[in-house]
């Protein structure tokens, strides 16, 4: 599904990704871990198409197509979704309207019929349950005045509604209390299927107690320095990152 | 500069035999004052960015007979979809009884067109008219004081509440071409009373005319007034409107100004917090396109202790539109514990659109909490990327974010029919979409 080869990227002329190789197949969950500044969030942002990052080398194929050549909205329309580490507040646009617009834009791009507001509300009802969110949240402006936990839940709600093939969770666990973490993890696990894939970017191992990854990769200084199974996360929790970042230097 | 026709009209103003002596005298004094002041020049601070020369040059005729071709059905789009409101309709500046409707009864609340108010409530009008606002330094208010032919007087008795909003709908059509309407509104809300008043200025055509409106509002102790000014004049018209408020102890004013029409508009919203414990909330939205010039000046006078004021104005300007925003907050030496917040944010959609913004705080008390700020910007890049990352194309995302910028301040409107109408106007304008369903774009 996703094939990253030798990916290099800069932000403000500073090289952050220094040659990433990563392959993700349908049905898999990959965890990308690493200390602060290792480039793990940059990797997520580059895959989503954030304009602040320039790709300076390498390739990313998504379902055989050149992902890097696509505008961010096209990536989304083709089933890529990134849950933001810092979801953006949009005062003045209700959550419901925003979600319906996104949902219909994606359907339109796929040549499918748009869904009318009433039918969309039915769809929403089930998705709200999944993330334990009150319907009143739909009438509030997107992320505006939401608590940290509400913002992250809202990201998972969007993910549930847009039903991506490839979801990238960028430090979705940061700043969450244990209850919110369970809700978020439960949402992700429920959405997990044979035909989709998830990349979980995280600093801490604790999210991986709830979302069990098939593979764990450790990023340090812009490169993947170690890959392994889910036990690697446990090892990292016990030993920290130093033994690996030292190896990368 | 003054124009010949306006001067002639003003000189004739005091010679109206059918009016009481005090009113004729007031007209004469105001006409003299206007003659002395002339139209304001851009050399003065108050009109630095807005030239009144076109108003002077176009030489609008003020004293006109009533007339117009307006039918009830023409007004449907301007009633905010609301029933039961007391609605006074003015066609080309003159009261039209047939188009007006009494709405639901409110004991203790009197809403009268100007001429009847002079007949039936002369003492109230005499005691208040021209006492809340002063024409000494304001040429347009002087002109209106001299020339006003019609308008409305609203009296809300002590401890009384208006059961429904009161709507003063000023509509113009082609018959007002080259003429002016100078409506005068007086609202007196007695102690502990409550009322909501909407003033709409709308047009059924694209005539060139001049509206010069003055509204005076007196809030007794503990009174609450919500006042909306909706300016949707003809794109070729000129609009100058002043709302001047005087607030007694523990009174609350909520004012919203929406300006989208007129070739040139200037809206003044002034309030004086004269008693302790008052609150004033002044919000607004201005939308400019083409070569429109849209100017707002607000002035909040904190004269007493423990009062608060809140102000958020937003604007969206496209093409070569020119916006002006000047917000003054004066905190007098005795107004300790004043809590004031003032913001102005303008979104420029074009490289050639211009905003002159000037938030202004003048504080003469030492124990106050006041902040102010202004931003001028373009579409928020982070929000744009966020929307795109959810599959929304760049063009559509820009439309929605523009709408959202406006909706953010429209959300503050408490009167639902007004909020819904203005949201729909903004929605249609910035996205081309009709708002038709339960998942309206605006949030609550």
Record the SSE blueprint.
The complex is a heterodimer of chains A (249) and B (444).
Chain A: E1 2-11, E2 14-24, E3 29-33, H1 40-48, E4 53-62, E5 65-66, H2 72-77, E6 80-83, E7 90-94, H3 95-109, H4 117-130, E8 141-142, H5 148-162, E9 166-170, H6 178-191, E10 197-202, E11 215-220, E12 223-228, H7 231-239, H8 242-248
Parallel strand pairs in A: 3-10, 3-11, 6-9, 9-10
Antiparallel strand pairs in A: 1-2, 1-4, 4-5, 7-8, 11-12
Helix pairs in contact in A: 5-6
Chain B: H1 4-12, H2 21-37, H3 53-58, E1 86-91, E2 94-101, E3 109-113, H4 114-120, H5 122-128, H6 139-147, E4 151-156, E5 166-172, E6 180-181, E7 184-189, E8 194-203, E9 210-219, E10 224-232, E11 238-247, E12 252-259, E13 264-273, E14 279-288, E15 293-302, E16 308-317, E17 322-331, E18 339-348, E19 354-363, E20 369-377, H7 381-388, H8 394-410, H9 416-431
Parallel strand pairs in B: 1-5, 4-7, 5-8, 6-9, 7-9, 8-10, 9-11, 10-12, 11-13, 12-14, 13-15, 14-16, 15-17, 16-18, 17-19, 18-20
Antiparallel strand pairs in B: 1-2, 3-4
Helix pairs in contact in B: 1-2, 2-6, 4-5, 7-8, 8-9
Tell me what you see in this structure.
The complex is a heterodimer of chains A (249) and B (444). Chain A is 36% helix and 29% strand. Chain A has 249 residues and is of the alpha/beta class. Chain A has one domain (2-248): 3-Layer(aba) Sandwich (Rossmann fold). In chain A, the strands form three sheets. In chain A, strands 6-9-10-3-11-12 form a six-stranded mixed β-sheet, with helices on both faces. A four-stranded antiparallel β-sheet of chain A has the order 2-1-4-5. Chain B folds into two domains: 4-275, no CATH class; 379-444, no CATH class. Chain B has helices at 4-12, 21-37, 53-58, 114-120, 122-128, 139-147, 381-388, 394-410, 416-431; strands at residues 86-91, 94-101, 109-113, 151-156, 166-172, 180-181, 184-189, 194-203, 210-219, 224-232, 238-247, 252-259, 264-273, 279-288, 293-302, 308-317, 322-331, 339-348, 354-363, 369-377. Chain B is globular, with a radius of gyration of 21 Å. Chain B is 22% helix and 37% strand. In chain B, the strands form two sheets. Chain B has a ten-stranded mixed β-sheet, covered by helices on one side. In chain B, strands 3, 4, 6, 7, 9, 11, 13, 15, 17 and 19 form a ten-stranded mixed β-sheet that branches. In chain B, a hairpin with a 2-residue loop joins strand 1 (86-91) and strand 2. The A-B interface holds A 48-51, 71-73, 75-77, 81-82, 84, 87-98, 100-102, 105-106, 109, 116-118, 120-121, 138-142, 144, 158, 162 and B 380-383, 385-394, 396-397, 400-401, 403-408, 410-411, 437-444.
């Amino acid at each position: 599904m996703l094939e990253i080869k030798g990916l290099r990227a800069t932000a403000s002329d500073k090289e952050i990704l220094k040659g990433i190789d990563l392959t993700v197949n349908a049905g898999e969950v990959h965890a990308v871990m690493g200390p602060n500044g290792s480039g793990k969030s940059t990797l997520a942002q580059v895959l989503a198409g954030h304009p602040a990052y320039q790709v300076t080398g390498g390739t990313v194929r998504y379902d055989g197509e050149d992902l890097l050549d696509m505008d961010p909205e096209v990536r989304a329309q083709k089933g890529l979704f990134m849950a933001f580490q810092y979801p953006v507040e949009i005062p003045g646009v209700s959550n419901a309207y925003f979600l319906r617009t996104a949902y219909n834009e994606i359907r339109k791009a796929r040549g499918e019929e748009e869904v009318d507001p009433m039918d969309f509300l039915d769809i929403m009802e089930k998705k709200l349950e999944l993330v334990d969110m009150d319907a009143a949240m739909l009438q509030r402006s997107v992320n505006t005045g939401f608590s940290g936990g509400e913002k992250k839940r809202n990201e998972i709600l969007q993910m549930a509604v847009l039903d991506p093939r490839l979801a990238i969770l960028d430090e979705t666990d940061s700043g969450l209390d244990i209850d919110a973490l369970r809700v978020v993890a439960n949402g992700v696990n429920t959405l997990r299927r044979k035909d989709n894939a998830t990349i979980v970017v995280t600093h801490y191992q604790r999210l991986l107690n709830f979302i069990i990854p098939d593979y764990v990769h450790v990023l340090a200084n812009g490169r993947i320095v170690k890959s392994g199974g889910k036990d690697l996360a446990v090892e990292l929790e016990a030993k920290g990152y130093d033994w690996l970042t030292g190896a990368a230097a | 500069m003054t124009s010949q026709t306006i001067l002639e009209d003003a000189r004739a103003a005091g010679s109206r035999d059918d009016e009481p002596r005090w009113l004729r005298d007031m007209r004469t004094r105001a006409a003299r004052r206007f003659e002395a002041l002339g139209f304001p020049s851009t050399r003065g601070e108050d009109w630095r960015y807005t030239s009144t020369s076109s108003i002077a040059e176009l030489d609008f005729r003020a004293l006109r007979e009533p007339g117009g071709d307006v039918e009830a059905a023409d007004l449907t789009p301007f009633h905010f979809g609301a029933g039961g409101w007391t609605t006074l309709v003015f066609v080309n500046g003159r009261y039209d009884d047939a188009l007006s409707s009494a709405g639901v009864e409110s004991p203790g609340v009197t809403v009268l067109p100007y001429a009847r108010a002079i007949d039936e409530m002369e003492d109230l009008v005499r005691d208040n008219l021209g006492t809340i606002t002063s024409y000494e330094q304001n040429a347009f208010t002087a002109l209106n004081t001299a020339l006003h032919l019609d308008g409305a007087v609203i009296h809300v008795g002590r401890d009384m509440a208006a059961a429904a909003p009161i709507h003063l709908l000023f509509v113009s059509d082609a018959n007002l071409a080259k003429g002016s309407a100078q409506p005068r509104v007086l609202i007196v809300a007695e102690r502990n009373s409550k009322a909501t008043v909407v003033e709409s200025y709308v047009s059924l055509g694209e005539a060139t005319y001049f509206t010069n409106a003055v509204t005076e509002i007196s809030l007794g102790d503990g009174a609450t007034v919500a006042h909306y000014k909706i300016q949707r004049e003809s794109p070729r018209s000129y609009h100058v409107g002043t709302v001047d408020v005087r607030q007694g102890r523990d009174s609350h004013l909520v004012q919203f100004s929406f300006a989208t029409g007129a070739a040139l508009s200037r809206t003044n919203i002034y309030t004086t917090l004269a008693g302790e414990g008052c609150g004033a909330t002044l919000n607004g939205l201005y939308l400019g396109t083409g070569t429109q010039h849209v100017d707002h000046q607000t002035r909040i006078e904190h004269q007493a202790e423990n009062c608060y004021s809140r102000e958020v104005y937003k604007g969206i300007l496209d093409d070569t539109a020119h916006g002006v925003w000047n917000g003054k907050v004066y905190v007098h030496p005795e107004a300790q514990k004043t809590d004031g917040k003032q913001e102005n944010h303008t979104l420029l959609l074009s490289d050639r659109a211009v905003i002159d913004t000037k938030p202004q705080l003048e504080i003469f008390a030492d124990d106050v909490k006041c902040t102010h700020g202004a931003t001028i910007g373009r579409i928020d890049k982070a929000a744009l990327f966020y929307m795109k990352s959810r599959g929304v194309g760049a063009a559509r995302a820009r439309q929605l974010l523009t709408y959202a910028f406006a909706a953010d301040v429209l959300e503050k409107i408490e009167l639902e029919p007004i909020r819904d109408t203005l949201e729909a106007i903004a929605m249609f304008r910035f996205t081309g979409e009709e708002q038709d369903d339960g998942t309206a774009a605006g949030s609550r």
